[in-house]
What we know:
Elements: H1 9-24, E1 32-36, H2 38-41, H3 43-50, E2 60-64, H4 72-75, H5 82-89, H6 117-129, H7 133-139, E3 140-144, E4 149-152, H8 165-186, E5 190-194, H9 196-206, E6 214-218, H10 232-242
Parallel strand pairs: 2-3, 2-5, 5-6
Antiparallel strand pairs: 1-4
Amino acid sequence: MVSKQRDVRRPLIQAAKALRDAAETLTFAEPVTHVYNPLSYAWKSHQAYLRCVNPAGVRVVFLGMNPGPWGMAQTGVPFGEIAAVRDWIGIERPVERPRVEHPKRPVQGFACEKSEVSGRRLWGLFQTKYPNASDFFQDHFVANYCPLVFMEASAKNRTPDKLPANERQTLNEICDIHLIRLITSLNPEFVVGVGAYAESCLKRVLDETEARAKLSRILHPSPASPAANKGWADKATEQLQAGGVW
């Protein structure tokens, strides 16, 4: 744990701004037709979220892949299912719109009536264990590796691991820099990949930091994963307990 005299929120906000601006310079070819950067149009919410972190650092960092269309794309918060962000974390800020918006994936901010299942499951687990969000953030933080949402013409979501190798490499370069800054600032004892992709990203950058964090993984809560659709919370809890995280 870092010294209590040091406030990690400032470097986290600066790192997020750098990631936001670097992501704005990237271009992607078809089949990707629309790219959303919630760090840009939902910056007020994201900055408020970063200010939730324990100023002295945290014991556990959870890492997801990238925003979902009805979660962080709407709220600016990783896995940002609206009810969890608004009612439990206590964040509700004005959200702007992407420059080029897909008609089937409108950004309505906190007025969006759809629910992000992955976020509902993940934040629901944390809320069950920590009824007060401030108790969760005392020792934990949740981040995403990639800040961008990728969509095809049909509005189908395209995850970063499905991008062409050259686009993926350029994206990874800026996301790795941000992840290194995040881990260096928070100095966690444990880093937990939410799914295999996030775990692989953590594994790749850990050697670039001075952190001695222990790496583990939990099952991704996405409904696209059959294993996650029955007893996900119990399975994730068992994995966290087995890894010594909880």
